[in-house]
Design goal:
The structure is a homodimer. In chain A, helix 9 packs across helix 17 and helix 14 packs across helix 15. By secondary structure, chain A is of the alpha+beta class. In chain A, the strands form 8 sheets. An 8-stranded mixed beta sheet of chain A has the order 16-20-21-28-25-24-22-23, sandwiched between helices. The radius of gyration of chain A is 30 Å and the shape is globular. Chain A contains 21 helices and 33 strands. Chains A and B meet through strand 15, helix 10, strand 16, strand 17 and helix 11 of A and strand 15, helix 10, strand 16, strand 17 and helix 11 of B.
Chain lengths: ~675, ~675
C-alpha cells in the first residue's frame, strides 16, 4: 500500500479544487487528491472499507487523481457497483494465475458477467476440471499477496509493440482496433499486467475469498466461427462467502429443477432428432398445461375485451418488407420458400397479420380500442449451438395481442396491460419481478430507432405517466427500446431466485402508418392508431420452462396434468374405485386410476414420483362409508371425507386457480 | 326406328341361346337377339320405356346383339344408370350442335360428370353466353329429330385416317393412344359421329328436354399447361324437368348461401393479397366459430379417451422420406427450407409427428389404445387456379387424431370413430350422408398400394365386419383405398342438397412398421400396432365453409359469433341495457349492445342482417318490471320474460348445443 500512495503523490500539485460530497459538504483539496485521500481524511475506518469512487457520476479507481472541481461519492464493498468490480478483478487474477501455471497461454478478453466473470484464453489444449482447481488455488495465493491494481496510461504504439514482443498477439490486435481517441490504459497487479479500461479495486486482497471457477467452454475469437476456438473459463464471484453459498445452492437447486430433466420425468415434452432441433413435441401432459394456460389467457382477455383471431404461419415476403422484418430481422427468420415465383416466409411475429386484420374493414373511433389476440405459433431461426431446452427454441407459441387505440386511449390501455402482468404474477406466485422501461437513444435515431424525435419523446412521456398514474414500479433503461417505440420488458425471478425474461409490452407509433392503418375520428378525419404489442405470458415454451423450475414440477392443482391418483387398497375395491373415478371425471377432474396388481406402497411411490397433487386411497372402510381417504402432496394424510364435499372443494380450488397448497420451496 | 331394326337383323342367326331374366325366367332366343327384341317380346309398353340393358352385369346398348347365354336386365329411364347415359348423350348432341353452328371447331373429349356433362372444343374464340343459347336451341332440334345412336366397330387405321381427313386431329390422337387390344367403336347419330365406348340411349329423343348449358371455361388439352387451351362447355342434364328445376333452384340457393359471400358479410374470414392466396385470415367472428368447434371436438374426444398433443409445423425432410410423403406426395407439399444444411418442410399431415410421440416412450399392451389428437395446422400446395374460398386452401387446421391399437382392439376403435361421425351429424343437423368404404385394387399392389396382399384382405375384412356389427350403412368402392390401408370417406349433403367430402377414417397397417412403432404384448413379445387416422370434422376451413352454406349463415345459438343483440328503445334505457348486458356476459353469453343513437327499426334491421339469433328489446315496461323482451330469429316476438329464467333457458340451449331453433331452409 505504501508503494501505491507514494506513486500517486506525483499527480498532486498546489492548485486547490472543490470536492462536493453527497451530503453537500464541500472540501477544499490540492489538485491530484485521490478518493482514498478524501476517505482517510474522513476516517481511517471509511478508508479501510472504501473500494471505488464516483467522480461527477463516473466510476473511477480509489487511486484516481482528482484535478478539477467535482462531486464525489465514496463506495464501499456493499455498494451495487462493488460486485462488478470484484468479478472483473477476479478475471484479471485468474488470467495471471493461468499464465503463471501454463506459460505460453495467451490472454484475450475477460469481462464481468451476470453472477461472475470469464476469461478467454488461447491455448492448444482445453483446461480440465483438475486445472480449474489448480487455477483457483493459485488465485487465492495472488489475492493474498495483496498487490495494488495500478493504472498506467501507455503510448499506443509502445503498447502494441510491448504485447507483440511478449507474444500476446490478441492483446495487440485489440489495441490496434481501439478508437484513435481512446486512452490506452494498462492495469498492473504485481508483475502481471493487462490492457483494461478499469476501474478496479484498490488491491487484489479486496477481492476476498468468495469466488469459484465453474466450467470450461469453447468460444470463437470475437464470436466468429471462422476464427480460432479459444478456451473460456467461467467463474462466479460474490461479496461474501454467504452470498457465494446462496448462489451455489441456487444453482444446485436449479439443476434439480432443470426443466429438461423434469420435463422428461413428467412426460411434458420431448425432442426428436428426426423432427429437428429446437422443435419441441408436446406430450399429453404438456398439452394439458398448455390448454390450461390458454384457458387462463382467454378468460383474462375475454374479460378485458379482446377479440381472438387466427392467422396463417406463412406469408409473402413482401409483407415482411413492408413491416421491416426482412431488413431488420432477416437473420432470425427461416429461409424463404418459393411458391409460384413468390417468396413465402414462416412468420417470426404475428403483428403484420394482425395489422392486416385491422385493415380488413373500415374503422371508426367508436370501435376503438380494437384488441386482437392470438396464440400464434412463430418460427425464428436460432443457431443450433444457441438452442437450449424450452428456453431457446425455433418454434414458439406466443400469448400475443395487438391493441389499436387512439392517443387519448393509450395510457389506460398500456396500464391495463401492465396490470394484467401483475394479475398473472399473483396467480403463479411470482413474488419478485421488475418492469424495465426501455427508452430510445437520441444518438441512434434513423439507425437503431425510427427517426421521429418528437414522437419518441411524446410516447415515452405517455408511457412514463401511465406507469406513474397506475403506481407501477419501474426502472428506466435508455437505449433498449424497440425499433418502433418504447417498451416494458418484464423480468421475473423463479421461486429459487433465478432470473427470467418473460414478457413484453411495446408501443408502436411507426408501423401502423407503414401499413396505412387508419380510423375515422369524431371529426370525420382519418387518424393513424397507436399499436401496443403485448405478450404477458411470453411463449408457452419459455413460460412452461420457467414454471417447471418455479414449481419444481409440483404444479398447483389447476395446472397439474394428472390432478388425482385413485389407489384401491386391493383389487376387491376396483369396482368402487371405478365408480369414484367416473364420478370425478364427470366433474372435469383429471384422474388416473391405478388398479395395477401392485403393492400399495409401490402405487403411492409412483404417484409421488409423478408429483400428483392428490391421492385418493380406497379400502373397505371407504367402500362401506361411501367415502374417500385423501392424501395430499406436501400436506399429508387428510383422513376420510364425503366424496361430494370433496368434489365441491376441489372444483372450487381448480376454478379459482388456488395456489396456496403448493410448496414452492419443496 | 325401322331403319335401326333392319340393320340389327344382320347379326341374327339360327343358333339358339338362353337368356335368364332377373326373376329367373329363361328365354330361348336366336343368337343376335337384342335387348329391345326381348323387351318387345314382353310388352310394347316395356319396349317403349327401355333404354339400356345389363348383359352379364355389363351395361350395353339396347341394340346390342346378344350371341351367348347370359343374364339380362332391362333398364328404364328411372334406373340410376339412366342419368349418366342422358348426360353422356347430351355431350354428343352438344358436340354435333356446335359443329353445325361453328364449322371448323374440333371436338376432343366430352364425358358425363356429377350433375351433367361437358365437352372440350378446340376453337380460336371462346364461346359467349349468347352462343350457349344458340347451341342449346340447336340441341333441342337434334333431339327432336330422334336419330338412333348407332354403334359401329371400325378398323383402327381407317378410323385414324377418317378423323385426320376431316381435320379432327385430337380424335385421331386419342385413337392412336388407345390400347392395342381395344375395339374402336364409333357412335353415329344421323350424319354426325364420334369415337365412343358407349353405351348410349336408343335415340336422341330419349334424352328429353331436361338439360341446360351452364357455363364456359378454359381447359388445357389433357390437363397439361403446356398444351393448347381448349374451350369447355358445361351443361347439366336430368331425367325430368322437375329434377332439372330442383337442381337449378339448389344452385341458386347455393349462390345465395355462397360461403365466400356470407363469410364476408358476417366478417368470418378474409383473404389478403399481401398475405397470400389460399391463406385465410380468421376474423374475430370466425375465430369464435373455430373455438366452439374445437370445444365440441375436445369434449367429445375427452369422453372418448383421447389425449391431446401439440407438434411443430415444420420438420426435417428425412422424416417425410421415412413416412413416404416425399415419394408419394411431394407435389402437394411446399418447397423445402434449407436450415444449417438440412432440408425442412412444412407439414402436410400430422401423422409422422404423432408416430414420433407414440415412439417417445416404451409402450405395453396395457396402455393401448393410445389416441393422440391435435388440431394441427397443415400446409399443402394447391395450384393457385385450384384455390376456392375456404373449400380449397393452402393452410388447413385439421381435427386430426391417430389411434394406435392392437388387432383385437381394432374393430371397436374403428367403429367408435364411425359412431363419432354420426354423433356430429346429429349435432349439426346433417340428415343425408354416405359412408364409402374404399378398398384396394389387387392389380395395383406394389404400385398404388403397399404390397401386402394378405394384410389388405384381412384388414378390409375387419373394417367390413366392424361396420356390419355396428349396423352402419356403407357402400364399397374398390380401388379407392389409401396407400397404406382401407378407409371410410364420408360424404355429407348440406341442407340444400349439395354434396361435400368432409371426413375420413383410415386404417394404416404399413407405416407403423416403417416407424418401428411397437408395444410389448401380454406374452412379452414386441408387436406393431395398427394405426387409425381420423378427422371427423375435417378441417376448420372446409367444415366452416360447409356450415355457412348449410345454415345459410344462421348459426345455431351455440355457434353464433354474436348470440344476442341488446337494443334499448331509446337512450333513456341505456343504463338498464348496460346492466342486462353485463349480466348476460357474466354467464358467458356473447352479447352485443347496440346503444347507437339510431332508430329502433334501423337497429333491428342491423341485427337481422348480422343474423343474430336473439334480440333483446328494452324499454320502459321492461325497465320497470326488471324484465326483458325477446325477439327470436325465425320465431318472432316472444314477449317479455324474467331475465334469470331467460338466462337459465338460454345457457341450457347453448350447453346442449340445441339445433331445433334454427330453420335450415330459411
Amino acid at each position: 500500500m505504501e508503494k501505491q500512495v507514494t506513486k500517486l503523490r506525483q499527480y498532486m500539485s498546489n492548485e486547490q479544487i472543490k470536492i462536493t460530497l453527497p451530503d453537500g459538504t464541500v472540501l477544499e483539496k490540492s489538485s491530484g487528491t485521490t478518493g482514498m485521500d478524501v476517505a482517510e481524511g474522513i476516517s481511517s475506518g471509511l478508508a479501510k472499507q472504501s473500494i471505488l469512487v464516483e467522480v461527477n457520476g463516473e466510476l473511477k479507481d480509489l487511486s484516481y487523481p482528482i484535478t478539477q472541481d467535482c462531486t464525489l461519492k465514496i463506495l464501499k464493498k456493499d455498494a451495487d457497483e462493488a460486485l462488478e468490480l470484484i468479478r472483473h478483478d477476479c478475471a484479471h487474477v485468474m488470467a495471471e494465475a493461468v499464465q503463471q501455471l501454463y506459460p505460453g497461454t495467451q490472454v484475450t478478453i475477460g469481462p464481468a458477467i451476470d453472477n461472475g466473470f470469464y476469461y478467454d484464453f488461447s491455448r492448444k489444449e482445453a483446461f480440465t476440471l483438475d486445472d480449474l482447481g489448480k487455477i483457483e488455488k493459485k488465485m487465492h495465493e495472488i489475492i493474498d499477496l495483496g498487490f495494488p491494481f495500478e493504472r498506467q496510461v501507455w503510448d499506443r504504439s509502445k503498447a502494441i509493440k510491448y504485447f507483440e514482443d511478449i507474444g500476446e498477439i490478441y492483446k495487440s490486435e485489440i489495441i490496434k482496433d481501439l478508437p484513435k481517441e481512446e486512452e490506452i490504459s494498462i492495469y498492473r497487479q504485481g508483475e502481471w499486467m493487462d490492457l483494461c479500461r478499469g476501474p478496479h479495486l484498490p488491491t487484489t486482497k479486496h477481492i476476498g475469498k468468495a469466488f469459484k471457477l465453474m466450467k470450461v467452454a469453447g468460444a470463437y475469437w470475437r464470436g466468429d466461427e471462422k476464427n480460432e476456438m479459444l478456451t473460456r473459463v467461467y467463474g462466479t464471484a460474490w461479496r461474501t462467502e454467504k452470498e457465494l453459498d446462496t448462489y451455489l445452492n441456487m444453482l444446485q437447486e436449479a439443476e434439480k429443477r432443470d426443466h429438461r430433466k423434469i420435463g422428461k420425468e413428467l412426460k411434458i415434452f420431448t425432442f426428436d432428432d428426426e423432427v429437428g432441433a429446437g422443435l419441441p413435441l408436446w406430450l399429453p401432459n404438456g398439452s394439458i398445461i398448455i390448454e390450461e394456460l390458454e384457458k387462463l389467457a382467454k378468460e383474462t382477455e375475454d374479460k378485458a375485451g379482446y377479440d381472438r383471431v387466427r392467422t396463417p404461419h406463412i406469408t409473402k415476403g413482401s409483407l415482411y418488407e413492408k413491416s421491416g422484418h426482412l431488413s431488420h430481422y432477416k437473420d432470425s427468420m427461416f429461409p424463404a420458400m418459393n411458391i409460384d415465383g413468390t417468396e413465402y416466409y414462416l412468420k417470426p411475429m404475428n403483428c403484420p397479420h394482425h395489422h392486416k386484420i385491422f385493415a380488413s374493414s373500415p374503422r371508426t373511433y367508436k370501435e376503438l380500442p380494437v384488441r386482437l389476440a392470438e396464440y400464434g405459433t412463430c418460427y425464428r431461426y436460432e443457431k443450433s449451438g444457441q438452442l437450449f431446452g424450452l428456453m431457446r427454441v425455433r418454434s414458439m407459441q406466443m400469448n400475443d395481442a395487438h391493441i389499436y387505440c387512439s392517443e387519448e386511449q393509450f395510457k389506460e390501455e398500456f396500464l391495463s396491460v401492465c396490470k394484467m402482468y401483475l394479475k398473472y404474477f399473483e396467480i403463479f406466485g411470482i413474488e419478485k419481478y421488475e418492469m424495465r422501461l426501455s427508452l430510445h437513444d437520441p444518438k441512434k435515431l434513423g439507425d437503431k430507432y425510427v427517426d421521429e424525435p418528437e414522437l419518441w419523446i411524446k410516447t415515452e412521456k405517455l408511457v412514463r405517466e401511465a406507469l406513474q398514474d397506475g403506481k407501477v414500479n419501474f426502472i428506466e433503461f435508455p437505449g433498449e427500446a424497440a425499433f418502433y417505440g418504447p417498451k416494458i420488458d418484464v423480468q421475473v425471478w423463479s421461486a429459487i431466485g433465478r432470473e427470467f425474461t418473460l414478457a413484453t409490452n411495446q408501443v408502436d407509433f411507426a408501423i401502423p402508418r407503414r401499413f396505412n392503418l387508419s380510423y375515422v375520428d369524431s371529426n370525420d378525419k382519418d387518424q393513424t392508431p397507436l399499436c401496443i404489442h403485448r405478450a404477458p405470458l411470453g411463449t408457452h415454451e419459455r413460460f412452461i420452462g420457467f414454471l417447471i423450475e418455479h414449481y419444481a414440477g409440483n404444479f398447483p392443482l389447476w395446472l397439474a396434468p394428472v390432478q388425482m391418483a385413485i389407489i384401491p387398497v386391493s383389487d376387491k375395491f376396483n369396482d368402487y374405485a371405478d365408480a369414484v373415478c367416473s364420478k370425478l371425471k364427470s366433474h372435469g377432474i383429471r384422474v388416473k386410476l391405478d388398479n395395477r396388481n401392485e403393492k400399495m406402497g409401490a402405487k403411492i411411490r409412483n404417484a409421488e414420483l409423478s408429483k400428483i397433487p392428490i391421492m385418493i386411497i380406497l379400502g373397505k372402510k371407504e367402500m362401506n362409508d361411501n367415502s374417500i381417504s385423501i392424501r395430499r402432496r406436501f400436506i399429508g394424510d387428510q383422513g376420510s371425507m364425503d366424496i361430494d364435499q370433496f368434489i365441491e372443494e376441489t372444483v372450487n380450488e381448480i376454478y379459482t386457480r388456488e395456489k396456496s397448497k403448493v410448496d414452492l420451496d419443496a
